[in-house]
Amino acid sequence: MLAGISDIAEQGPDRMQEVRANIGIVPSLASEYSVVMESPLYRFECDTSDCASVGAPAEGNFASRMLGFAADTAAIAGRTALARPFSDAFPSLDGKWRDFWSGGDEFGDNAEGNSVGKAIAGLRVAEETAPTAPIFAFWHTIRTHAPWNVDREGKEIYPSRLPIVDDAHMVGSNKAGTYSTPELQSIERRLYANSAIDFDRQLGQLVAELKAIGRYDNTIIVVTADHGAGITVEADRRIGDTLEQRWTEVAHVPLMVKDPNQTEPATVVAPRSTGQIARTVLNAAGATAPANLAVSPDLSKDLPKGPVFATVGGGIMTPWVYQGAPEPDPWRQQDLTPVNSDYPFAIGIDDSLLGTSVPGGWVPVETDSIDAIQGESTQQLVVITRVPGTCDPAITTGLVSSGGVVTGSVLWQSANSNAPDRGWAIVPKAESYQFWCTSG
Predict the structure, then answer these.
(1) In angstroms, rounded to a whole number, what is the distance separating the alpha carbons of residues 393 and 402?
(2) Which letter does DSSP use for residue 389 in this model?
(3) Are 67 and 117 in contact (CB under 8 A)?
């Protein structure tokens, strides 16, 4: 079960508690196709030498030293033609290393949850061209990326991430990068959970294809998250304040690895690096790993079991940061099914209000702006800016209605955030929307 809290625990329980107090964990969503080795290994994507050289060898940090190899391994992400030593390990096709990049832009196939079709089509073309040759494929899914998300069946499309406010990175976050209310944390977790489930569905299609063409047993599969984040005890910033943290913006955090002929799941406890993915691929291809990878063991080796605590460069690799909320148990499944499927994003209000007239005690919100973000879903993302002083700033949830009927909740930023009068709502699409706050 992927965690990624910190190996800072070795500094003592008080220090560990300080770190854990401000972060949360998304429990793993196991399903039919996710029975593979889970690992906090690290993989980098970098297009420029400047990016690759952020961590200088002189810093003495192992992860930073691995960045020296990032210029070569950048091609693992499918951005460029693969460089040596990979080009030496596999047969070439028309003078090029045999790879293909499958994906789509955020507004097209991936938004519809169908990008796996491109990966499968690429595999079939490669198989027809040279049935016995090794294949490398990079599948860019963008499952949880803005501006779209999907439901658990991959059928319904709706806006993914709520808008960024000023210089805040995360949804509903303040300038320090931390979530300002539990409700905003909850809505983001649900969006990500749905997307993870849909990705697993697509991964199952890819696994079925590999089995159908007889390549599954001899295939390495590495599934990575989108980004690492430079998360410190004080804040979550995508680009850290120090060079040691900056590289995490271009880190792909591997979540799962399937080794050739692996049939049983295993949990990797030790920290992993990009170079270890490279060495694993080279070993499987029967190639000799270069000196750069001498310190990077094969991912299939050293597989102790137990909780995962890993950190690189002082950043805690986890997508969630909490402010003033206890950390959930990372080893326990969490039920993210909406209470009311007709109003799946009604958060922080009494569910009995949904579908009824706005009750007494609620007053209309005077707004400066109401922006309904365009989308094809039956659910509408609405961004609201209220007139300052309209509502009690200490109350961070309100009602949304259409035609006099309550259809959901509006989530306001907290009073100490950088945009305390900004709010978001995801409600059933309607011609108009009214917003309400309590009178006291």
Answers:
(1) 24
(2) T
(3) no
Report how far residue 110's alpha carbon sits from residue 116's, in angstroms, rounded to the nearest whole number. 8
Residues 365, 390 contacting (CB under 8 angstroms): yes
Cis before residue 330, ω within 30 degrees of 0? no
Helix or strand run (H / E) with residue 192: helix 182-212
Residue 344 CA to residue 377 CA, distance in Å, equals: 13
Write 147-151 long-range contacts (CB < 8 A, 24+).
Answer: 147/106, 147/107, 147/111, 147/373, 148/106, 148/107, 148/110, 148/111, 148/375, 149/191, 149/194, 149/195, 150/111, 150/112, 150/113, 150/194, 150/195, 150/198, 151/194, 151/198
> How many helices (H) does the chain have, and how many strands (E)?
9, 24
Strand 236-237 to strand 23-24: parallel, antiparallel, or no bridges (unpaired)?
unpaired
Pairing of strands 136-139, 99-102: parallel
* pLDDT (0 to 100) of residue 121: 74
- φ/ψ (deg, to 5) at 226: -70, -60
What value, to the nearest 5°, has the Cα angle with vertex 425 and ends 333 and 196? 30
SS3 state of residue 119:
helix
pLDDT of residue 195: 57
In this structure, what token pair is assigned to residue 267?
Answer: 């949990």
Q: What is the pTM of this model?
A: 0.47
Query: Contact, 240 vs 173, CB < 8 A?
Result: no
Most confident of 45-49, 63-67, 87-91: 87-91
With beta carbons less than 8 A apart as the criterion, state whether 251 and 44 touch: yes
CA gap 96, 338 in Å, rounded: 49
Question: What are the chain's domains?
Answer: 7-321 (3.40.720), 351-438 (no CATH)
200-209 pLDDT per residue, tens: 667 778 878 8
* CA distance to 87, 96, 122, 212, 399, per residue, from 131 (Å): 19, 17, 13, 13, 59
